[in-house]
Amino acid sequence: MAMSGRDRAELRAEAHHLTALVHVGHHGLSPTVIQSLDDALRTHELVKVQLGRNVDVKAKDAAGHLAEAVGAEVIQVIGKTATLYRENPELERKHGAPPPWR
């Protein structure tokens, strides 16, 4: 199910204050990076990925590849930072509690 523009905009606003949890180094989009992104998405749902200076993949392409690998949505790509979202229905949510990425 594709996200609405409004949902995406809300997540973009939320992502503004986040720090990158996953860093892509000179090894590129390695299985290790994909695994750590998968873990981060499982616990946080909304995750920023920072691409290192030496990564020879365009940020948009990297974001698309990572999103596909872990079944997430690309929320935005700015410079070398990509924000991805994947809902985790198994995460415990308390009514009125802040979302898992806060």
Poorly predicted runs: none
Total tally of structural domains: 1
Give the CATH superfamily: YhbY-like
Architecture (CATH level 2) name: 2-Layer Sandwich
Structural class: alpha+beta
| Tally of alpha and pi helices | 3
CATH class: Alpha Beta
The order of strands across the largest sheet is 1-2-4-3
Mean pLDDT: 93
Provide the gyration radius in Å: 13 Å
The total strand number stands at 4
The description of the largest β-sheet is: 4 strands, mixed
At the third CATH level, what is the topology name?
Translation Initiation Factor IF3
Helix content: 25-40%
Order of helices and strands: HEHEHEE
Gross morphology:
globular
Percent of residues in β-strands = 15-25%
Ends distance: 24 Å
Task: Please render the helix and strand layout as text.
Elements lengths: L4 H11 L6 E3 L6 H14 L1 E6 L7 H12 L2 E6 L2 E5 L17
Parallel strand pairs: 1-2
Antiparallel strand pairs: 2-4, 3-4
Structural features, described:
The chain is of the alpha+beta class. The protein has one domain (5-85): YhbY-like (Translation Initiation Factor IF3, 2-Layer Sandwich). It has helices spanning 5-15, 31-44, 59-70, and strands at residues 22-24, 46-51, 73-78, 81-85. It has a four-stranded mixed β-sheet with strand order 1-2-4-3, with helices on both faces. The longest helix is centred in the middle third of the chain and has 14 residues, at 31-44. The protein is globular and about 45 Å long. The protein starts with a helix and ends in a 17-residue tail after the last strand. The model has no long low-confidence stretch (mean pLDDT 93).
